[in-house]
Structure formats: C-alpha cells, structure tokens
C-alpha cells in the first residue's frame, strides 16, 4: 500500500509552501520500528576457516538482535586444503558442539545445523551422503574450485587475486569465456544433480574480475547466468544474497548482482540473505543492504529456516 503525506511550511518571505511525499506503507512501518532481516544461516567457525568458537558467534548474534542463526562449516573435501573441516572425526565434534549450543541457548535464539558443501565433479562426495549420515537442517551448495578439462582446479575465491588471474591466464590460456563457462556449468550441474537447499554466492566468479577480463553486460555472460537460473527454478533451490564481497571490499556488488536479482524475481526464484560470516562481528553484516537490494528488485519476502523448514518472511 502506498500512502501520500502532505507537508506545508512558510518560507522566510512568509509564502506557504506545500510538499507531497509518497511512501510504501510497509517500508515506512519497518523503518520506524527498525525492522531488518534478523537471520543468518551462513556462518564459518574455527572448525573450518572462521576465526572463533561457535559460542562466540551465538553471543555476537544475540548482540546483533538476530532471531535465528545457522552454522555452515565447509564440509570436508578429499584433498589438502586450508579451508574445510578436517575430516569426519572433526565433523562429528562440530555437530555435537552445535547441538549442545542449541540446547544451551534455546530460550534466546534458534540455532540450526548446516554445512556449506563444495561441488567438484568426480572429487567431492554426493550431498546426499552428508544428509544421510548427519542430522543436518540444510545444505548450502557452493563452487569455489572449478575443475577444467585437464583436471586442474581454478580457485575463484579467497583474498588472493593473483591465484584467480594465474588460473585464468595460465591454465585457461586466457580463454575467459571457457573459464567462466566452466564455472557456471559446474554450478548448474551442482544445482541439478545435488539439489542443495541454498545456492551459495551464485556469481562469485566475478569477484576478482573488477572489469578487467570480461563485462557482466556481455550477452555470453548473461546467457550463462540465465541458464543457471533456469536450473535453479527447475529444482526449487533457494538463492542466497551474500553480502561478504561488499563488506570485505572484494566485490563491487552483492552475490548475485542486482540485475540477476531482478531476473530471479521475474522468474519467481526464492531467496534468503546471508553474511557468510567468518568472524563473530560479521554475523549480521550488511543484512540490511541485502534486504534493500531485494526490495529494489521487487521482492517482498525472503526465506528463513524454522522448525517447520524454510518459510517465507516479509522483508
Ligand atoms: Zn563459499
Ligand atoms: Zn561460506
């Protein structure tokens, strides 16, 4: 509902000045009550590449006024790496730690148990094996490492841009369309074959580009994104709006970019908002920016995990 308010005042010369303003009613009420999206389901602790114990994040979530939160440690991957939960023994400790916290803070905040699972074809475990063996509330599916036809892995994440450039220039011999195409094909394959609850940072491949190697306005790039969105629509996955690229100053836009959010809204794709926190103080970072971007794209609700599964909540 849109409401119009008429203001008037006298200017210094005594003339009466009238001023009309229009507001979206719900937007106005939420601004007055300082209501923002108060949930985050994408959180990394010291069990993987986060800085602190899970309890430090729960305390930070309470300080930030969150109503619910979820942990999403990087699931173990069968290769030497510095980001994932080490092995199944550590995974067991992670789960038991979160379940204890859920009980201890039951009266203060709803805590959910998730994993961010990597998809690398032929290398990572099927997502179903995590669902079958562990008491998971949800899975975020993400592509951080792109497997190319020569079986080399292109690391598209992390703070070191030179790794992204080396993969592109050396392994892909500068064939940007092929490299970016491999990323999106791997992402589509993950969505269709593994069916995560949430698709993590959908267009993260752009993060280290900074306009240097390709433009997101080029038709070939848009075609790759749109093909992926069709896979998402077909499978009913939720896409997260991930704010980390902006607050870490690594990306000029959210993951996914505003133009993709508009396409998603047109298609009827469900969304949630995540900070992808790696430190307690990042637990609610820029959730309001994610919410505003969704509203600008035409969304009026985002999905939140509850004891009854994923439910829509008004933005
Ligand atoms: Zn990720
Ligand atoms: Zn993450």
Q: What strand order characterises the main sheet?
A: 3-4-5-6-9-10-11
Using the CA coordinates, give the radius of gyration: 21 Å
Arithmetic mean pLDDT:
92
Principal-axes geometry comes out as globular
CATH fold-level assignment of the largest domain = TIM Barrel
Key features of this structure:
315 residues; 36% helix; 13 strands; seven-stranded parallel sheet; binds zinc ion; TIM Barrel
Task: Describe the fold and architecture.
With 315 residues, this protein is of the alpha/beta class. It folds into two domains: 1-35, no CATH class; 37-314, Alpha-Beta Barrel (TIM Barrel). The protein contains ten helices and 13 strands. It has a seven-stranded parallel beta sheet. Strands 1-2 form a two-stranded antiparallel ribbon. It has a two-stranded antiparallel ribbon with strand order 7-8. It is globular and about 80 Å long. One zinc ion binds at residues 116, 142, 144, 200-201.
């Amino acid at each position: 509902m849109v409401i119009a308010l008429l203001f008037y005042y006298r200017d210094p010369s005594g003339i009466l000045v009238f001023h009309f303003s229009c507001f979206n009613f719900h937007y106005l009420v939420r601004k007055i009550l300082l209501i923002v999206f108060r949930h985050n389901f994408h959180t990394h602790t010291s069990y993987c590449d986060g800085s602190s114990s899970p309890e430090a994040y729960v305390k930070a979530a309470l300080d930030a006024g969150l109503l619910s939160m979820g942990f999403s440690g990087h699931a173990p991957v069968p290769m030497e790496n510095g980001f994932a939960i080490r092995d199944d023994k550590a995974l067991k400790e992670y789960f038991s730690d979160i379940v204890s916290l859920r009980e201890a803070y039951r009266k203060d905040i709803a805590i959910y148990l998730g994993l961010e699972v990597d998809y690398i074809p032929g290398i990572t475990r099927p997502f179903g094996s995590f669902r079958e063996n562990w008491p998971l509330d949800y899975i975020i599916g993400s592509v951080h490492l792109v497997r190319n036809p020569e079986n080399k892995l292109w690391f598209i994440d992390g703070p070191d841009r030179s790794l992204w450039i080396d993969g592109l220039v050396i392994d892909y011999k500068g064939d940007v369309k092929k490299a970016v195409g491999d990323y999106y094909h791997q992402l589509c394959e993950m969505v269709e074959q593994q069916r995560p609850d949430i698709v993590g940072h959908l267009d993260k491949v752009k993060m280290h580009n900074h306009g240097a190697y390709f433009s997101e306005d080029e038709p070939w790039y848009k075609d790759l994104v749109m093909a992926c969105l069709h896979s998402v629509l077909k499978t009913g996955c939720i896409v997260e709006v991930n704010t980390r690229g902006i607050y870490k100053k690594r990306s000029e836009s959210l993951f996914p970019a505003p133009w993709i959010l508009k396409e998603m809204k047109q298609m009827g794709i469900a969304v949630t908002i995540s900070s992808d926190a790696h430190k307690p103080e990042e637990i609610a970072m820029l959730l309001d920016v994610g919410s505003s971007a969704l509203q600008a794209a035409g969304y009026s609700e985002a999905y939140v995990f509850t004891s009854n599964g994923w439910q829509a909540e008004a933005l």
